[in-house]
Batch of 3 targets.
Target 1
Amino acid sequence: MTSTGLARVTLFLITLCGDVIDALAAPNPRTLGSDLTILTHNDLYAATLVLGAWQPHDKAQTTCEQLSEDLWEPDNSTDFGFLMYLKYSHTSEKPGLYWIGGRALCSQSAVLSFPEKDDTSEKWQVAVNAGTASILGSRDKLSFRFRGIKYAAEPQRFTYSKYKEPDGNISALTYGSGCINTYCGTTLDCREDCLFLNIWTPTLPAKKSAKKKAVMF
């Protein structure tokens, strides 16, 4: 193998190991022992991270810190009407009080993401388990985001694709390649290997539930 080939293999291994470490280090609903929900007011200004598990104050504070946040400290101008959703949705294990600055409300300091401003740095990263896979994503102000998840191997031309179950540590921080279309080469990176799934969700459950949320494609 040439020195160039060795360099490429080494770079690939370094990148792969980095993704594995990130996926293991990122906060995960299972390891945190709590559902995570981003709750946002309709005006998109007020927002909080809801920890669904019943827990003491010090544990709630620690969990918020693991998410790079603090216990929520609303100011006098905050409209608390959007918190009524907690009663309607039964987001937490059982009704009661929340710890702010049983369950807890953490601050939500992540900002809205835009194509030209998309911060997926370690501070905003979060991981979920799916079967034997650990998938690394991120959050912004409105949702947890998992992008570029490969769901099928590249099919031969004019054949059907076959589902590929996720496995191992997967980085879902960026979009996958787009399929061939008229925008290729200008605003979009296109390839025939383009079967990727992008997921946005306001809630990450800590445990599997028979009651599923609606999914829109």
Target 2
Amino acid sequence: MKPWFERFPDTYTAERGFWLGKRFEEADIRRDGVVFIGTIIVRVGGEEGLERHAFNLKVVYPPGYPYVAPRIEFIDPPIKRARHQSVNGSPCLFPPSAWTRTLSASELHLAIERWLAYHLSGHFPRELAVYELPEYFPWTPFSVLTTPSALERATDRRYGRFTVDELVGHDLGVLWTIDQQRVGTELLDALAPGSSRNTRRHTGRWFRLDQEPPPFENTNELQQLLGRAGHRVDFRRRPNSKELIGLIFPDDALGEERLLMLDFGVQSRKALAAVGKGWSVRCPSLYVVSTEELFRRLSGVRDVSALRSTTIGCLGLGAIGSPLVTALAREGVGNFILCDPDRLHPGNLARHALDLASIGEFKAEAVDEQLARINPWVRTRTETENLSHPDVLASLVAGAGLVVAAIGDDLQEELLSEAIRASDNRPPMLLARTLHGGAVFRVALLRAGVDACITCLASYRATGDVQWIDVPATGFPDVFDTGCAAPARPGAGITSQHAAIFAAARALDVLEGRADDTNHWLWVERAVPDADSRLAVAGTLHTSVFSPRPDCGACGV
């Protein structure tokens, strides 16, 4: 591909003309960038009127321009580790989403002037207020999770101790205690259930500061900082592989209390501290996990507070059921009844939401653990036995706001439907299954007194109703990789996942009150030859409205 200045000659001419007009020099032009060097004058108010400040800088047009914004490098005076400045030194002039191919050099020049003025005054607009101190420390792969209530345990104290439980084999830990008070129980239980927990505990010290500190690079600078805050520390001894320090302070941008996690540990016993500097300080990423934070990006799209109190019952946690419930958990549904009598086998994995780490576990229990890793505050009930007993089904249905049947078994679906009709709450029921080796999937919504029941649907099929699309079997033999008592039907995994997400979306329509009269959906993933003509075109969705039949003796309509 030609360099950008040859692909967009008019743009290059306009950009070059602007910067030369501002008395910049074109310092370099090559494939890896076009560079202009010059001076920008910024005037800000002082005690004696406007003060003039000159900044010599580079404007670097990268190879990806105009799809990538130019980079700014400060030469004289050098500006490093300032507010709203990225780690590579370039100022954050505007959000990435604000950059467009049509943004002109004059607008870029204005943005630089504005940033420098804010930098000189020490105050950025509220809409640019972002806490960014951790970004100025060297990166480390280790991350720590904590909860919003953790800092409450350190209220009214100036210093103390904390522990972090590291998950062995992962670059991840959980803030476990602050001053011997547990703060990480739910997170650690979600990530590593007691039966499989393998953790290594690290003890650290925390100190309170009255204000956000400037960035620093080593333990000598950290020791001086803590000394000025009234804390006496000594970092001269050789640190452990992880040597954690916590700083608690109100941030300058928003005034919110923050915990900055630091690590100056060394891996080698032969490592030596740098003369006059001490040990190098890094900053593990600290993530505050809460239901609000987990679902922040759904704000305005989902009523997460309502979904949090909703209960979904799902019978069948295989190729459709497992991705369906994980999708609903990610949308904010807070309670699940998980039912499946089978264990996970290697043959399941091609069409399942789980992986090899869960082989041999009951599907219901493994999915339960998966949901907790998505949302530690999700509430679940698992059932693996007696799922064909009417009393067991009655107890499952009684606690559900909606029931999903992803079992692909006509008789089991009829039994479940009967349990729903006999219940006091009579929750809506969604059926989902793939057909013809995954060439087609069918989803049906059954609301008592509104939609056709399973018996009604069977009658529509038997009488050849024009709305009903009959999908023939493939003739492929069943797969008996888990024994003769549990045959599996061959079918494409992608279609199962599509069916799961489609059914999950319909479930949300019901839960959020958006469902209309449509209650039957049939998607054709691949054309089915020698069958109903409506199955001849791939990528088509057929919708229907099946009403309760007056002659149905099952639903009582």
Target 3
Amino acid sequence: MKTSNQAVLIRVFALLFAFIIFVSFTAISVAGEKCGNFESILKTMLTEAKQGMTTSQFIVGKMYLQGKCIKKDYHKARRWLGKAVEKDHTDAIFYLALLFNDANSPYKDYTKAVHWFNRASELGESHAQYYLGEAYLYGRGVKKDKRKAQQLLAQAMSLKDPRAHYQIGYMYQKGVRTGRRNYSKAFGWYAKSALMGYNNAHFKLAEFYAYGLGVRRDKVKAYAWYTIADLHGHTTGNAKKEKLVKRLSSQNLAEAQGLIQRYMKSMEYSEYQ
């Protein structure tokens, strides 16, 4: 009996340690700080993963899939996530779906991605709703169904996923379902997504202000949003900003700087940059 209790305690402490490592890894990734002793963390995680610890197998797989502080390796990600998936680990199932959904992955398979997103959703993974909505919107791995896409994206919006707001904006911009574009509604949804921190939406707002789509043309606000998009790494934001700055006065630039500060302060943090 004593031996059995000791085994349980060892297991509990091992799981606790894995959780602490996972939180530490997430904090490093989110903050964008130097990776420090990441190699030793990975070594510890690998040791536990090889011993069959499900949580560690998931963490190692996620590390290799995301490629933060470590070289991205789809094959190793597939291997370790697969082991955790065999034990019905919900997060591992979701990340395995992401691996199949990744356009750059050698395992890209939208049909499999939809299968695993559905499974993750059944197990309570809320973010799977967005990816399922996207799949039905573009017909990736399933027959295109715009009505179902909108329903799934609406569910994702209720979970405050900024990408869902963005996709609804895109549907209005392109006239999906109705056949008629509605730039005003599209702008409203992009604005919601932008203030939730989604960078693609920052760029969209800049474009709408620059060309007067669904909103009055405003080069100062356009410059402000191009700058925010650029600050968050949007590949086209800088080029657009540099082109527009030539048309702005010093007073315009001062006003834009004030807007940038105001927008940034009111913006929520999003992991979906």
